[in-house]
Amino acid sequence: METYKSDQFVIDHNINLIYSKLSNPSMFREQMEKNRDRIPDEARENLNKVKFEDDGISIDSPMGAMKLSVSESVEPSLVKYVAQSSPVPFGLAVNLEAIDDNHTSAIAEINIELPMMLRAMVGGQLKEGAKKMAEVIARLPYGEM
Q1: Which listed residue, of 16, 18, 82, 134, carries a Cα 20 to 30 Å from 99's Cα?
Q2: In this structure, how many other beta carbons lie within 10 angstroms of the beta carbon of residue 135?
Q3: H or E segment and range at residue 64
Q4: DSSP-assigned letters across all residues of 69-96
């Protein structure tokens, strides 16, 4: 299993608030539509490939459509999603760490099992995907959700 991590991002909200939102993907659906104009253009383009549903997150990826469901959570520091329909085993983890009462560090990880010959071909895209996912997570309007 290969792991592709984003850079660390700082979110200007309490870790418990962020965890409560990330562990319940259905909360994002309405908020994403209401706040699309606050998300940078490049991140918004990637967001068009993501759908927040009651039971998980659907993503249109270069490997085809995937549905991620919450598979594990450790309050308030970790939310893991696992692909329910994917050509390869795939997961997304969001690691949170409190900096202080009003700031939280976030890192997104993509975990995927790839054949050796595909790693070189898509590894850069997966690293970039982890970075974009972390950017979206960092810019969500948690205080308004």
Answers
A1: 82
A2: 19
A3: strand 64-74
A4: EEEEEETTTEEEEEESS-SS-EEEEEEE
Tokens read off for 76? 């308030």
Token reading at 19: 């965890």
Q: What 3-state class would DSSP assign to 90? A: strand
Q: Which two tokens stand for residue 26?
A: 């259905």
CA distance 98 to 11: 10
Q: Tokens 């068009």 label which residue?
A: 48
What are the residue ranges of helices labelled H in the chain? Answer: 15-22, 28-34, 41-47, 116-139
User: At residue 47, does pLDDT exceed 80?
Assistant: no
**CA–CA dist 41, 32 (Å, integer):** 14
Cα dihedral 48, 34, 133, 89, rounded to 10, equals -60
Tell me whether strands 78-83 and 90-100 are parallel, antiparallel or unpaired.
antiparallel
Predicted model pTM: 0.80
pLDDT tens readout for residues 55-94: 788 878 766 777 889 899 999 999 999 988 777 888 999 9
Model pLDDT, residue 8: 96
